[in-house]
Amino acid sequence: DYHCVAPDLRGFGASDALHENYAVKDYANDIVDLISILTIENYVLVGHSMGGKIALAFAARKPEGLQSLILLAPSPPTPEPIKEDEREKQLASHGNRCVATDTVCQAAGGQLPGEVFARAINDNLRTSEAAWKWWLESGSREDISSEVGKINVPVLVAAGGRDEAMTPKLLKAEIVRRIKNASLIVIPEVKHLLPLEAPEKIADLIRRHCENRADDQQSSEKNKLGESKFYVETRKRTIN
Fold it and tell me: What is the value of pTM for the model shown?
């Protein structure tokens, strides 16, 4: 029904490594460039975890063509609440399969299917060391909260009811209350890896959101012929 573009962010997967002094705004620039290269005119932007913070920075620029945001267990626009001992542990564990396995187990609310579990671990291990360190030392600490109030499109935030880091309470306080047209939905049984833990629910949520946006646009543009096309921008593997 929809054309989905799922890029690897810079320093992740098969994308190029980070340049020095990278910031959240630079990741947002990458998305701007990608949309321009692909000549995408109307789209819904989806961001998960770190990608959610990047999506917020992108949307704050009020880019042409952006219809709405869907944020899945997003990192908040304020510094992410990571305990310093956990931060140091993660910094020292880049490329460690045992730690990657433990991280995935803790981030998921239940046992993931074998193939999905293996893919999540391998995805963790494919993160470049530069991107790994950047997020833990800098990106997660960036404060872009003064910018998100500029967002002028609908924002749907989905939280895992069992997420111990990006809790529904945190996301409501740091995102929903800062943006005029934002709403929160909680998926009770999952933790942080929403797209992997509940792929059918997340796909349905995205589909219904896009359909509602299409209906809204058709209602406001009754004289416009044809259907609007929506492109969903995702971080990595949001929709299988």
Answer: 0.88
